[in-house]
Structures are given as structure tokens and as C-alpha cells.
């Protein structure tokens, strides 16, 4: 029987693939109304003189929604998730022609979708929907999509974030589904390299060819340099002495043999 720990590790993998894991997780978070990461942000609740709930965010003469029956509010939170990852320009380069952060663009898109003319009327039901959508933006920002890192601004006391960008992991790095680490990408390990951006897993870091090695965060195969004389390596591994004697300085060739030493792995005596 699997332990509780293994079940907690395996259950997310059964339902979320790497490409869409974060958006699906965001949708799941929206459904956890009692323990949602952010929100649910609801209009202020008040009562009239008879004790009946008004659910108002503003006082009259603004219009009170007659009923909330039949409305699946978490669905609007899920829309905010989609806006953040797909529609709001998330992951665009900082030079993207906008002075708005990724998070603010998402929330403004929610505002634009559920806008109304406040000089004429005010509807608390529509306000609830708009705030639910903005909650989805906030949750998506906290989760941060694989292949990207999120520059998170400090949240207010009510855990509401203001501003913050989701940017692609640069070359030589990656970030998988690691919700505990979203503000920075992981460098490709030594003897590996990655030329493209948006790396989503360690497997996206290519191995250096045999007989070469590189430092971590390498961005090109040209960073994989030949092993020193007397050493060799398999693909993706560190350079090691070919034999115990190969790296012995006493076995180095005479200066006249220097060209030989630079052309082939030096095993020991010639």
C-alpha cells in the first residue's frame, strides 16, 4: 500500500501534465473557496433594518443584484487564470510595448470584460464576477507557469498583490512545476547547456559531447570545452583522469611533445 506521502506526490502527476499543469492547478485552486490562495474577494456584506443581507459594496442608490442563484463564481476565477497565462501577454519581453505589469494587464482585462457604466447603475453581482476574475489573476501569478519566473511584488496585509511580471527563463536555465520556487529559474547543471529560453525541465538542458565539459548555466555547445590532457568524459559528465598516472605531472611529455599532448587525450608515457 502506498504511503500518504507517495499519494500526495503522485496524485498531481496523474492529473496535470507539464505543459498545462499550472493553469489546471490554478483552476483547482479557484474551486477551493474555503482555502483559496487569494480571495475569494467578495463584495462587502451588510444588512438592512430587518436584518436581511444586502451584499453591497456601495450604499444605495446603487442597484443590488436580485439573486446569485445559478452562478458558478469559481468559473470566473478560472477565467482569470486563463487571462494571465494566455490572453494578457504573460511572458512577453520587458520591452513589450506596455507600461503595465503582467498581473495588472490580466486584472485590467477582467475589468474590461465585466465593465459597466457606474454613472448609471452599479450591480453587485457583476462586481462579484469581476473580483472573482481578478482572484484568478492573483492565483496564477503566485503559481507561475513552468518555463517562466515571476517577479513578485510584496503582498498587502490582505494577501493581494499589486504589480508583478512573469518572464521567460533565460538561456542556460529552466523552471519546472515548482510552486515553492517561482521567483528565479534553475541553472542547467555543469556539463550541460541550453540555447533556448523558456526551459521547463532539466531534460531541456542538452548534454555536452564526450571528452568535453562546461560550467553550470552554459548557453551554447561552444561553452563545452575539451577536457585537459590526461582526462576524458562521457556525454554530460565531468572530466576524469583516464588512468591514475594520466594526470601525474611527472608523466607530462617534454616540450617537444606539447603538440601531441594537445591533440589527443594524454594517457601517460608516450
In short:
With 270 residues, the protein is an alpha+beta fold.
Oligomeric state of the chains in view = single chain
Total domain modules: 2
SSE string, helix = H, strand = E?
HHHHHEEEEEEEEEEH
What strand order characterises the main sheet? Answer: 1-2
Counting DSSP H or I runs of 4 or more residues, the number of helices is 6
Identify the notable features of this structure and list them briefly.
270 residues, alpha+beta, Tumor Necrosis Factor Receptor, subunit A, domain 2, 2 domains, two-stranded antiparallel sheet, two-stranded antiparallel ribbon, 6 helices, 10% strand, disordered N terminus
Structural write-up:
The protein is of the alpha+beta class. The protein folds into two domains: 143 residues, no CATH class; 72 residues, Ribbon (Tumor Necrosis Factor Receptor, subunit A, domain 2). Helix content is 28%, strand content 10%. The protein contains six helices and ten strands, in the order αααααββββββββββα. A two-stranded antiparallel sheet has the order 1-2. Strands 3-4 form a two-stranded antiparallel sheet. Strands 5-6 form a two-stranded antiparallel sheet. A hairpin with a 7-residue loop joins strand 9 and strand 10. Helix 2 crosses helix 5, helix 3 crosses helix 4 and helix 3 crosses helix 5. The radius of gyration is 28 Å and the shape is rod-shaped. The protein starts with a helix and ends in a 7-residue tail after the last helix.
